[in-house]
Amino acid sequence: MRVGAHLRQDENPVATAEDLGIDIFQMFVTDPQSWKKPQPHPHADEIRESAIDVVVHSSYQINVASLNNRLRMPSRKAVEEQAKAAAELGAIGLVVHGGHLKDGEDAAEGFTNWRKLFERQEDKGGFGVPILIENTAGGDHAMARTLESIERLWDAVGDFPQAGFCLDTCHAWAGGEDLVGLVERIKAITGRIDLIHLNNSRDEFDSGRDRHANLESGQIDADILAELMKTADAPGVLETPADGIAADLEYLRSH
Ligand SMILES: [Zn+2]
């Protein structure tokens, strides 16, 4: 079982990961609220050479499904740039949220846009790292909130070997998916889970709200989270409040 945490951008991530005794860490390669192009990381060599795994989370405003050219085109470019930066750090993948459409837009076009992301990049030789599509918590027009939408998404991207899946447990809960047996139900669709974002939820089931909590202090029974981690056979990354990370890691190791 490989477990770790998302680390803050301003840290020397390998040193912090060693202090925490974790097997994997997640990081951003640019300001996650911006479209800024990633710059070479000051600790790139250490990150690449370390035995501790790294995964990169892409910036938040990316929405490759969008039907709006002025959002979709910079999103594609940002995924390409951030995947390249991730590859330079030796990352196991780049996490990208499923994205969403607007009221009245045709979901089929959003799934096609996901397909086009991989198609276009294949012509350029691929992304350098797998793109781990993450399920999201809210909205009625999300590309990866419900199992039904994930199934349609996978019909569009499933034949690209660089299309991977990241399961966020808080998002699944808040998105209204029963967590018991969820790993099996997702794998039946995607054939793979590459990463788990292990988070509890401050809000109730199907709330649509994305507020993470430490493992033993949210609305989800912590045993269920440990069980998902066990059955997924994938590395797990905590995106929980920093003060409780040490206790969360301890909980996982002892369960
Ligand atoms: Zn997440």
TrEMBL record:
Residues covered by the Xylose isomerase-like TIM barrel domain: 15-254
EC number: 3.1.21.2
Keywords for this protein: DNA damage, DNA repair, Hydrolase, Metal-binding, Zinc
InterPro entries, per the entry: AP_endonuc_2, AP_endonuc_F2_Zn_BS, Xyl_isomerase-like_sf, Xyl_isomerase-like_TIM-brl
Cofactor: Zn(2+)
Protein name (Swiss-Prot/TrEMBL): Deoxyribonuclease IV
Species of provenance: Gordonia hydrophobica
Pfam families given in the database record: AP_endonuc_2
Residue spans crossing the bilayer: none
UniProt cross-references to PANTHER family, sorted A to Z: APURINIC-APYRIMIDINIC ENDONUCLEASE (PTHR21445:SF0), ENDONUCLEASE IV ENDODEOXYRIBONUCLEASE IV (PTHR21445)
SUPFAM superfamilies per the UniProt record, alphabetical: Xylose isomerase-like
